[in-house]
Inverse folding.
């Protein structure tokens, strides 16, 4: 059995396209997830940070595309 943290299926492949900031290193990038804690426009989620090489918490800065394909923030 692996000791690695397991993410929910589809994390990174489904959900709104977001601009988010890693709470560990501060890197800002685009991510996809349907597993947002709190309001989708400013909540948080866990995702892989390739700079940290860890699963970290990310804070949503902006929603670029919603699941229905429409744009997020005006």
């Amino acid at each position: 059995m692996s000791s690695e943290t397991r993410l929910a299926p589809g994390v990174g492949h489904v959900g709104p396209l977001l601009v988010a900031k890693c709470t560990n290193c501060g890197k800002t990038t685009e991510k996809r997830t349907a597993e947002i804690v709190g309001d989708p426009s400013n909540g948080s989620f866990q995702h892989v940070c390739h700079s940290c090489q860890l699963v970290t918490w990310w804070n949503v800065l902006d929603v670029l595309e919603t699941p229905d394909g429409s744009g997020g923030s005006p």
